[in-house]
Amino acid sequence: MGLLDKLSSWMGGGGKVVTVLVLGLDNSGKTTMLRTLTTTEQEGQRQGPGASSVPTVGQRQENFQSGGVSFRAWDVSGAARLRSLWERHYRHCDAVIFVVDSADHLRLVVARSELELMLSHPDMSGRRLPLLVLANKSDAPHALSAPHVASALGLERITDKPWHVCASSALSGEGLGDGVSWLARQLREKH
Amino acid sequence: MGSMSRWLDVEAGADDININTLPTNVTFSDLQNDNEVKLIIGDFGRGDDGPRLKIFKGAMQISDLTLPDLPLGVVSFYAVDSNPRPQPVIAVAFSSSVHFYRNLKLFYKYYLPSVELNAGELDIWKQLTNPSNHNEVIILKLTESLHNMPHKVLSIQSRDFLTLTFDEQLEYLENTRELPKRRSGEIVCISSIKLSSVDKHAVSCLVLGTEDGEVIVLDSQTFTQTNVVNISPVKKTPFQIVTTGVYNVDYRITVATREKSVCLLKRDWKAGRILFNTDDHIIAIEVFTTDNSVLVICADKTFSCYNRKGRKQWSLILEHRPICLTLVPISHLGMTLSAVALVSGHVTLYDGKYPRDNIFIRGGHLLLKILKRTADFNSNSTGIESSEANISQRPWLIPKKSKLFLEQAMRERENPKAMHEAFQQELNRLRLLTAQTLLEAYRKSDNFVGAGNMEPIRLSAEVEGLGPVFVVTLIVHNTSSERAVSGLSVLFQVISTGYRVHTPYIKVPLIAPGNQLKFPIKVEEVFSENVNPDVFFRNVTGQAGDGSVIKVLLLKEGKVSPVLAATVTMPPTDPMMIPYDKLETSNFGQNISQK
After folding, report:
1. Where are the annotated segments for Disordered (chain A) (predicted)?
2. pLDDT in tens, B360-398
């Protein structure tokens, strides 16, 4: 981080740092989404969006800002055998971004079951965490619309958490801004 | 269904899929090299629709190829070993040829070598084609003798000729001058075997079973015959081939035949041997790759398992006629289940001989089920009651009465009073010890959960970090549902001088009923000027020893003794994280030389 970035974070960021957990199945676009978010913040100084990313192993941390809130995002691997690591992060997170590949019709049920497992975990149930669901890859052919994804995931049954679903494209960055600004608004109200 | 299902149902609209095929025409392949397995079905078609090769991605049909004839087997394999990974080849077997598709385009046709014509048949045809014989009496006589020949040895031309009516036969003979040349062989089943490696993308070659009872192995590159073996010294007709092992090393080809027997072929065998015979017609077989035991479903509704030597291990009676059998490897649980489909539409998964799960499917439809990540196949399965019944039917394993047991029983009969008194004494001593330990824990406040007269508080601690600075998160949890707790404070007691606690004393605010408070506290491991070289050889994952214990005392206003106490054992600092300056000033090199 350069001096300019530090300055801007002191002046504009407001200093509030929240931890968000980025979850989703493998190949749903979590890493690409975070890279798009971080590069738009830093004016594309690093590699531009569109470059393909390798599957995440374990977890990585990324930082970005939106709506006066500094996000510390944990990008956790979505591979089936590493999904049991998700719950290690539940206790420390203030919000969850759940990324769904809306063109992967087959594994929507898997995403739904993982979401239900996550919401019923003792460290998550009963906490009023904002949940942002990104219906990612909305530009792909045969992609489902955001309301379709919401009903396929059974989001209407979540009553103890504020949730929001929006169609997005991690490659182009479309729809990400809306979702993240909703998340920032929720977190500002809460804190 | 009892509790929750192990499966997730895919709801993508697969209702309009109308499939009419046999189990041998269904296979899976990563057709586009995108790590997503596609379902490949050689469909017979219904009504006017001819046979087609259908490719499904998930529940969506992505491709459709017209096939020239009814398929009798579809196999997918890798024909070459190259980098990047080549596209798999789909081989579709028809009655006497195999068509190879790469990239969904036909690129090679293999025909079975033809067989010389029977001399008698040739003789009849010579007379038939002679125009002078074209009158009703002679033709009828010749057709009659053609009829009397065994159907199996006849050429296609003769068989076609026999199905015609007399007028058609006449017309046919008017136009035909040529004799049937050779009789082509007939393929009955198709399979593949890995050539030199069991790797998932390793090169395989095709294995064909013919109507004449031969097994033909085709070269993976040139698609020519490399090996032809008879499956049995006696005439047997194969209808299903299962291969295990690696062709260039050691392999077993297990063949189910129409004559109620299973034959076995091994490397370097000149002919196959009969492994075992069954009571009724075999419907399908499967072979476990681990121990080469053979599963068989038969027309008499039995499902049996034979070991590699052909001895029967167990047998089950099924409710309905079975139609299909397959193995379901579940790699993350390290087990292989077998699935048996019944004519009623039920599919039962078996672990060994015990049923574990049940699925129902309607005919002609495609059902996609994904196994849950958390699913297991232990005996307390969902939806199956018969498994418990099976277990209860087994006799209890009761060991025989040993000499030791008899002697003990004798002693008990001789002096019961003394033994009872000794037992009671031991019991009382145990109770006293328990009470003493409880009292001591109460007096020393060496417990982390408050109960009874004590404060309804639970104290727990977690240590995070690699060192030398750790974060100890204390969690003070008020377990009472109606009483709030106030006037608490936390005091850290460091036993050795090896640690420095940044905030050793914290006042705890009021905790509402059922709530908890967290206190992250920094604890730093302090290294003396001379770092002991042993520090570098401490096990990072283990404990640092006796000196690493920190006591956390929970105090209450107005009480002399602490309410609760927790002992935190600090992990040792990662050697990579030990401050560099300490290493610079340390002179442990000299220490060693002095020793």
Report:
1. 38-58
2. 877 777 778 888 887 777 755 444 444 444 445 556 667
CA angle A87, A51, A34 (to 5 degrees): 35
Cβ-based neighbour number of residue B283 at 10 Å: 23
Cβ-Cβ contacts under 8 Å for B474 (sequence gap 6 or more): B459, B460, B461, B490, B518, B519, B521, B552
- Residues in chain B closer than 8 A to A117 (CB atoms): 374
Quick one: pLDDT at residue B425?
96
A-to-B residue pairs, Cβ atoms closer than 8 angstroms: 36
Q: What is the pLDDT of residues B293-340, one digit of tens each?
A: 999 999 999 999 999 888 999 999 999 999 999 998 888 788 888 999
To the nearest whole Å, the CA of A45 is away from the closest chain B CA by: 31
Nearest Cα of chain B lies from the Cα of A135 at a distance, in angstroms, of 17
pLDDT for residue B430 is more than 90: yes
DSSP B78: B
- Is residue B175 within 8 A of residue B129, CB to CB? The reply is no
Q: Decide if B82 contacts B33 (C-beta within 8 A).
A: no
Sheet holding B354-360, edge to edge: B322-330, B335-342, B346-351, B354-360
CA dihedral for A54, A58, A63, A67, sign (positive or negative): positive
d(CA B274, CA B591): 77
Predicted TM-score (pTM) of the model is 0.63
CA–CA separation, B204 vs B91, rounded Å?
12
Which residues of A belong to the annotated binding site for GTP?
Answer: 24-31, 78, 136-139
